[in-house]
C-alpha cells in the first residue's frame, strides 16, 4: 500500500507548458473548458480531471487531442470552485482535503454537463474519460449513469469503489505497472471480480514499466523510454472511444 503519510502520492509529473485551443465557459453552476472540432459532430467526451483540477494544462492537452480525433471535449470543474490540490500542499492533510471532494458525488454536475452537451452542442453520443480521482469518478458513472455510452478510467483509484463491479456500459481500465497508488494486487482482484459480475464489455490493461499518471503527465520528449507506452495508452483510449461512441 501507499505510504499513509502520503495516501495518494500523485506527482504533478511533467506539467505541460500548454495554453489550450478551447475556451472556458459557464455551464450551469460550474465552469468548464470546452474544445470543438472544426467539423460538426454529435459525439462528445467528458474529461474528468485528477486532483490537480480542471485547469491543469496536461488535462486540457488530452481534451484537445480528443477534439483532433473528432470529438467535442469538455473538462468541467468537478471541484465546483473548491481549490485543486497543489504540489506544495502538506500530504498529511490530503485525507481531510479529499472528504469535500468525493468522486462518487458528481452526479449533479454530470447532469448539468450532459444537458449542455445535448442542448448547446448537439451531442447525441457521449462518453467519459478520467484520470486518477477522475478515473474513480468514471468507475462510479459506469455503474449508474444510463446516458453515457462508454468510459475510460485511467489509473482510477480502485479502493474508492471496491466491491462494485456491475457496470452498465463498456469500460476500459488503464493501469501502470509501477503505480505507487494502485498496487497490482488490486488490479488483479478488479479483473477477477469484473469477470464474475460484469455483463458488458470491459478491458483491463497494465502498461509495463509505467508509473501513476503516465498517459497525461509524462512529457514523452524527455522520457524517450516511456514514449511508446504513453502513445500506446493514448491510442488505446481513442480506439476504445471510437469503438463505442
DSSP strand count: 8
Largest sheet: 8 strands, mixed
CATH superfamily membership, which one? Alpha/Beta hydrolase fold, catalytic domain
**Number of helical runs?**
7
Tally the structural domains. 1
CATH top level class name: Alpha Beta
Into which percentage range does the β-strand content fall? 15-25%
Name the strands of the widest sheet in spatial order: 1-2-4-3-5-6-7-8
**Roughly how many Å apart are the termini?**
36 Å
CATH overall fold name: Rossmann fold
User: Helical content, roughly?
Assistant: 25-40%
Indicate the low-confidence ranges by residue numbers. Answer: 1-9
User: How would you describe the shape?
Assistant: globular
Q: What do the pLDDT scores average to?
A: 90
- The CATH architecture assignment turns out to be 3-Layer(aba) Sandwich
Structural class: alpha/beta
- Compressed to H and E, one letter per element, the order equals EEEHEHHEHEEHEHH
Q: In angstroms, what is the radius of gyration?
A: 17 Å
Topology (elements, then pairings):
Layout: E1 23-27, E2 30-35, E3 43-48, H1 57-68, E4 72-76, H2 94-99, H3 107-121, E5 125-131, H4 133-144, E6 151-154, E7 171-176, H5 184-197, E8 202-207, H6 214-217, H7 227-244
GO cellular component, one term: cytosol
Main location: cytoplasm
Protein name: Carboxymethylenebutenolidase homolog
Quick structural overview:
The chain has one domain: Rossmann fold, CATH 3.40.50.1820. Helices cover 33% and strands 18% of the residues. It contains 7 helices and 8 strands; from the N terminus they run βββαβααβαββαβαα.
Amino acid at each position: 500500500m501507499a505510504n499513509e503519510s502520503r495516501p495518494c502520492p500523485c506527482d504533478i509529473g511533467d506539467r505541460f507548458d500548454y495554453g489550450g485551443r478551447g475556451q472556458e465557459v459557464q455551464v450551469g453552476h460550474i465552469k468548464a473548458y470546452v474544445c470543438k472540432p472544426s467539423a460538426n459532430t454529435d459525439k462528445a467526451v467528458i474529461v474528468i480531471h485528477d486532483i490537480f483540477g480542471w485547469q491543469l494544462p496536461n488535462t486540457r492537452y488530452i481534451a484537445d487531442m480528443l477534439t483532433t480525433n473528432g470529438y467535442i471535449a469538455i473538462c468541467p470543474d468537478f471541484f465546483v470552485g473548491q481549490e485543486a490540490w497543489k504540489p506544495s500542499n502538506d500530504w498529511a492533510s490530503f485525507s481531510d482535503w479529499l472528504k469535500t471532494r468525493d468522486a462518487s458525488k458528481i452526479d449533479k454536475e454530470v447532469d448539468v454537463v450532459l444537458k449542455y452537451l445535448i442542448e448547446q452542442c448537439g451531442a447525441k453520443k457521449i462518453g467519459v474519460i478520467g484520470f486518477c480521482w477522475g478515473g474513480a469518478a468514471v468507475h462510479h458513472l459506469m455503474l449508474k449513469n444510463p446516458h453515457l455510452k462508454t468510459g475510460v478510467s485511467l489509473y482510477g483509484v480502485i479502493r474508492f469503489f471496491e466491491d462494485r463491479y456491475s457496470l452498465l456500459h463498456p469500460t476500459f481500465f488503464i493501469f501502470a505497472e509501477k503505480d505507487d497508488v494502485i498496487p497490482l494486487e488490486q488490479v488483479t482482484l478488479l479483473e477477477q471480480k469484473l469477470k464474475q459480475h460484469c455483463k458488458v464489455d470491459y478491458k483491463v490493461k497494465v502498461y509495463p514499466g509505467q508509473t501513476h499518471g503516465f498517459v497525461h503527465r509524462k512529457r514523452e520528449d524527455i522520457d524517450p523510454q516511456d514514449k511508446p507506452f504513453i502513445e500506446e495508452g493514448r491510442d488505446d483510449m481513442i480506439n476504445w472511444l471510437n469503438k463505442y461512441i
